[in-house]
Design goal:
319 residues; two-stranded parallel ribbon; binds uridine-5'-diphosphate; binds nicotinamide-adenine-dinucleotide
Length: 319
């Protein structure tokens, strides 16, 4: 019999790719989402599949279902969205984690947490290794997300220590690709949509801050490998692309690839915006036998194609 897999946040950007991949591998998928940032459109192609079920539910409330594995992704990931209702963001991370851990405890099934590089805050150690405890402002506008995700990690490890749960924690670094929300404010979607519409490309600050961009297919591959590890592997394990770019370089690359005459403009840097970020992926290489395969330009081609096909929708959403 096939496995039944729960994906919370499954109608979001990463979640929708994960659901598709799990179905392709022969699992039954239960996708749970409250559609805060995710949409039915992201999983439209899966709705006719009899092995796929979509349930509207908010993970801050208990969930009683029967499954064999849990991927916990429910949480807005873009600063614009997670700062829209910061209290709900912390609730989603913390109460969502408690409920999904309670579910995993009752069912005695493995549970994977989509944690984040934001647990390192504005890092003073570079590149970031899992052993680094981070440099996080507990009271700033990013804290609802950063501290919510840190507390979720704490809960995962306490459920491990107290209840011997099979936990898997990955720390995801900036990931991009098709099905990102066109207006979610993250840098890759912003730059690509701005360039496609011939609008100004908005660099925040002077563009010298760095990020490392992982294509979504590579991330999904790491998630599935992580779930497949034996019970002794808990993480946290960094998943991301170790090739680092300045935001200015990213802007130049997008302008070069889309070529609609967009100009680069400079806007103020948001509060607590991390200056640098690059994962040390030694653990992912050693434990998961994983490293990203898709280079930035290659991933951008697919992302640009996607947003181009969505331009009508993008224009409508911007009205
Ligand atoms: P996303 O916003 O596209 O997806 C999040 C999904 O969770 C959405 O479908 C949203 O509707 C749903 N959701 C939010 N609150 C919920 C709630 N209370 N109950 C049920 N569903 C809820 O973001 P994403 O980029 O796909 O991120 C997925 C996960 O990966 C998140 O947990 C995020 O923190 C983590 N992550 C992503 C990145 C990245 O670069 N994409 C980086 C680090 C961590
Ligand atoms: N929970 C859930 N589904 C389940 C089992 C538990 O949503 O199938 C929730 C439950 O409502 C509780 C949380 O998970 O709020 C934590 O459960 P746990 O058993 O760890 O704690 P307790 O119920 O003892 O507080
Ligand atoms: N950024 C930018 N222009 C934009 C959106 C973002 O210069 O239109 C910058 C942002 O200030 C940050 C980087 O790009 O330094 C990555 O931002 P994103 O919101 O994608 O992710 P995060 O800050 O969470 O890594």
């Amino acid at each position: 019999m096939s496995k039944r897999v729960l994906v919370t946040g499954g109608a979001g950007f990463v979640g929708s790719h994960l659901c598709k991949r799990l179905l392709d591998e022969g699992s039954d998928v239960l996708c749970v989402d409250n559609f805060f940032t995710g949409t039915r459109r992201n999983v439209l192609e899966l709705l006719d599949n009899k092995h796929f079920e979509l349930m509207r539910h908010d993970v801050t409330f208990p969930l009683h279902v029967e499954v064999d594995e849990i991927y916990n992704l429910a949480c807005p990931a873009s600063p614009v969205h997670y700062q829209f209702d910061p209290v709900q963001t912390t609730k989603t991370s913390v109460m969502g984690a408690i409920n999904m851990l309670g579910l995993a405890k009752r069912l005695r099934v493995p549970i994977l947490q989509a944690s984040t590089s934001e647990v390192y805050g504005d890092p003073e150690v570079h590149p970031q290794q899992e052993a680094y405890w981070g440099h996080v402002n507990p009271i700033g506008p990013r804290s609802c997300y950063d501290e919510g995700k840190r507390c979720a990690e704490t809960l995962f490890f306490d459920y491990r220590r107290q209840h011997d749960l099979k936990i898997k924690v990955i720390r995801i670094f900036n990931t991009y690709g098709p099905k990102m929300h066109p207006n979610d404010g993250r840098v890759v979607s912003n730059f690509v949509v701005q360039a496609l519409q011939g609008r100004d490309i908005t660099i925040y600050g002077d563009g010298s801050q760095t990020r490392s961009f992982c294509y979504v297919d590579d991330l999904v591959d790491a998630m599935i490998r992580m779930m497949g590890t034996d019970d002794s592997v808990t993480g946290p394990i960094n998943t991301g692309n170790p090739v680092e770019f300045t935001i200015k370089q990213l802007a130049e690359t997008v302008v070069d690839m889309v070529n609609t005459g967009s100009r680069v403009v400079y806007q103020p840097l948001p509060v607590d915006d991390p200056k640098q970020r690059r994962p040390d992926i030694t653990k992912a290489r050693d434990i998961l036998g994983w490293e990203p395969k898709v280079q930035l330009r290659e991933g951008l081609v697919k992302t640009i194609d996607y947003f181009e096909s969505q331009l009508g929708t993008v224009a409508k959403a911007a009205e």
